[in-house]
UniProtKB/TrEMBL annotation:
Gene3D superfamilies: MFS general substrate transporter like domains. Signal peptide: none annotated. Keywords: Membrane, Transmembrane, Transmembrane helix. GO terms for molecular function: transmembrane transporter activity. This is Predicted arabinose efflux permease, MFS family. Residues 12-393 form the Major facilitator superfamily (MFS) profile domain. The lineage of its organism: Archaea, Methanobacteriati, Thermoplasmatota, Thermoplasmata, Thermoplasmatales. InterPro entries: MFS, MFS_dom, MFS_Exporter, MFS_trans_sf. The chain crosses the membrane at residues 12-37, 49-67, 79-97, 103-125, 137-159, 165-186, 220-241, 253-270, 282-298, 304-329, 341-363, 369-389.
Amino acid sequence: MKYIHLKVIALNIFMLLAVTFTMRATTNMLMTIIPVFTKYVINADVLDVGLTATLAGIGALISNIFVNGKIRIDRTPVTIFSFLLLMTISIFFLIFSSNIYEVLVLSLASGLSMGVVQTLLMTLITALAPRELRDRYIAMFTASLSLSLIAGTLAQGLIVKYINVRTAFIIFFFVSLLSTLIMLISSRRIKINPGKSKKIKFSDVLSKSSTALKNPKVQFALSGNISYAFPFVLILTYGSIFGNEYDNINPSSFFYILAAFFFVSFLTRLYMSTHSIKRKELLMYFSFVLGLAGYIIIGISSYYIIFLIGLIILGIPHGSIYPISSYYLSNSVETEDLNIVYSMFSFIMNIIAFIIPFVYGLISKLYDLRIASLSLSIPMALVIIYSVISNIKGNRSLKRNESLN
């Protein structure tokens, strides 16, 4: 009976990984093709490019406030399906968009979906996985994210090079539709014990989020992830434009380079999913150093090869920081509170994700892209320092508690 139960769990998680693959390929397309479409098809300026990412971030923030933290764990599957459907509809209308105002509205709509789907998929997989296998399933989830980014980005490069930018919306509309249909089937299969069945109030969300934020290990995970948001968000939003301006890299070639970045990330996550990483915090520290170094290298690059080296270096922390952060979060709370804590995590990341592109775009408009890149390396370094300090405090607190017991 236990064997059959584990097989059902494995099948459900396999289907969710298929949703993860198609969903993440689609969201990456939205985050990288929309800036290229905005800049080079409808000829908007660099600040408008940043506004598309900012509005997507605001949409994600709104969905976090009103959806994520309030969804009971047993209603997670149908919620994921609903927002995947919204994403698919948004892409359909992007196919026919012709001005910046339409793109901005559709960026907001797609952001509503992006703010819900990935967070709830992580929650669902974590809730379904047996506790002793949770670390491994989280690594599989993040590896699936990386693999989808490689395939999706290579497809984008081919589409942009041999057809045109707008066609990417058409092709990924069908990818998003497939993701939606798989999730529809999964939502009818998956049954989860809701635990405490009372309605989740906003005050409960604030209370439990506040409690979680006082945990030094949660602070370590959160600030670590925030530090990597600086290079990652800017690469997706402005990477193609920066490469074209300073390194003579056309948008289609940029997508091939970006695929190399995601491939390194995938290898990192694949290694983590097949090996037991005992000193996770040391890997996190190493990832911080690589993240800051890679970002600065890209900021000062003037040649194709330097840009490529910077992106490859950044691939390692992209592969390691998110799963390590997720590990610390998932082991800090009870299963029925996962939605609340992950939504708090995603909520803060969404704020960062819409602030960074806007600030970068504003500095770029006033000065240039290079100054904007190097300027934002300073707050990135400060966040890294805070993350390390939080972890040191957490370790001291654990040792103190062990000595008392």
